[in-house]
């Protein structure tokens, strides 16, 4: 069997690509209509994506052994947990742009396509940098630990509303395109003819575009929203990629774990949106896991330098990730957040 340059047989790479692309087409076909995704539907498709990932894990177990499968599942679970915080940011973005529920899955689709591309680039760069020596791993550990510290410090500011009109992505789109300020169907861009037709409608008589000269294309709020989501995810990837690389340095394991986790985010978003008030301790679980990953990276790096013999195995990492995730969910169920409005009434 011919092996690839990334250390796995060509057969394994083909199975991964076929499984991922096939699942994407199924998802696209089933969610092609502009209608809101119900909680029941979102739960079903979230289970579907987990099943696809576990099918690939089963393939790895049969063909490459339990350790490789364990590394994949650990990376997959870790990326899923870390993505929760990113999804909460997306909720805030959708709310600010007033994106209707029926169009959110389209924005998420393009956001996820961008995430798949940028994760591939970051994984290639990250795994390449690690080959330069253990000191790079120490830098990665510091990056992950700093992210955890910043999440701890920003916990009290979670209710603050960000002005996304000042976001870099928003300003970049505005620099290249005039903005049509109203959501027009599921269009991301409008032609001059379409804008003229919209301006002719009585309800748009007071709409101003912002540029005197006509343009070939105009960006809609959905386009601005996609741009902000994409750049926000790129920033998130700077934290998550080093964390997943801590699990395995094998590019296929890292990328496949991240990709299968990302592919399920579109439907997971709608599950979290419905249940976010009941999952109040998930962010705390994310912070704990980031500190754990920083320690794992630090131990591995210092072992290469000083040979102290301390390290965290793949199986231990898997149990810690799954255990912390389970504790976060259980704590959220047992100790739900008190309703602030009720507290205000009693005070």
UniProtKB/TrEMBL annotation:
It comes from the Bacteria. It is found in: Membrane. The keyword Lipid metabolism does not apply. Coiled coil: none annotated. GO terms for cellular component: membrane. The chain crosses the membrane at residues 12-30, 42-62, 82-100, 107-126, 132-152, 215-232, 252-272, 279-299, 311-335. Pfam families: TerC (PF03741). InterPro entries: Integral_membrane_TerC, Integral_membrane_TerC_rswitch. Keywords: Membrane, Transmembrane, Transmembrane helix. It is a multi-pass membrane protein. Belongs to the TerC family. This is Integral membrane protein, TerC family. It comes from Providencia stuartii ATCC 25827.
